Amino acid sequence: METNIQSVHFDADKKLIAHVEEKVGKLKTFHEGLINCDVILRLDKADNSNNKVAEIKLHAPGHELFAKKQCSTFEEAVDTACDALKTQIK
Do 53 and 69 meet the contact criterion of CB atoms below 8 Å apart? Predict the structure, then answer.
């Protein structure tokens, strides 16, 4: 499965990219027909600490799944978005 990662308003480091690819890659175990995945990581303009947003869109034949989560870290946002997608797949 091809994974496209885009970071908005910041430069993602290799550790964050590896974390995203690992978590998204695990979703393939729940659905073999996944074609590709678009991940957008961005900083929200909120004044509080929960300003990291992860948007994940999965493409499968005939389906498009989407999850958007906002948390205090990008890793947490990606984890909760992947959990939401896992629920949608099941």
Answer: yes
